[in-house]
Amino acid sequence: MEVSKERTAATFEELAMPLFYQLYNFAQWLTQNRTEAEDLVQETYVKALKGFSSFQADTNFRAWIYRILRNTFLTSRTGLKATATVPLDEEGALETPASAGTPESIFIAHAQEQQLQSAMEELPLHFREILLLCEVEEMSYQEISEALSIPIGTVMSRLSRARKALRDILKQKIG
């Protein structure tokens, strides 16, 4: 029995650990708070490990663990725990990597990045999460469907509406 538990833990670690930074990135976009994102990822791993025996080996582990993260996040936002999201402070902001660009081009690129992040934060959660899974995490429609527990048709239509909403917000900010 002990060998089986060790094998299960090793298999879980082999599947789960390569996804750590992707899950953290997604959690930070959802929570918009570094500490909450860390807690969310930690809680996701605890729940996933506890429920790993229910994971079917022939299914998509990535979609399975993203669904756990999302459900954990949504559960944390209900009832008395619900709080307004707060924009990332400068300490939690992504740093711009060094480049060969001019100071002006670096400034423009950084300003555009800030506008995009600000626009993303204005989107409703169901639009923000689908854009992040598709564009940032590069999940397939099938993986997104499994992670969010929605039909592929809903993934496609919601993604289309999310992109349009993002364009509209950016037009308002720029124009």
Look at the helices and sheets and give the structural class.
mainly alpha
Rg: 18 Å
Residue stretches low in confidence (pLDDT < 50, at least 5 long) are 79-99
Q: What is the average per-residue confidence, as pLDDT, rounded to a whole number? A: 80
What string, H for helix and E for strand, traces the elements in order?
A: HHHHHHHH
Topology:
Layout: H1 2-16, H2 20-31, H3 34-50, H4 61-76, H5 103-122, H6 125-136, H7 141-148, H8 152-174
Helix pairs in contact: 2-3, 2-4, 3-4, 4-7, 5-8, 6-8, 7-8
Q: How would you portray this structure in words?
A:
There is one protein chain. With 175 residues, this protein is mainly α. It contains eight helices and no strands. The longest helix has 23 residues, at 152-174.
Key features of this structure:
mainly alpha, 175 residues, 70% helix, 8 helices
Give a nutshell description of this structure.
The protein is 70% helix and 0% strand. It is mainly α and 175 residues long. The radius of gyration is 18 Å and the shape is globular.
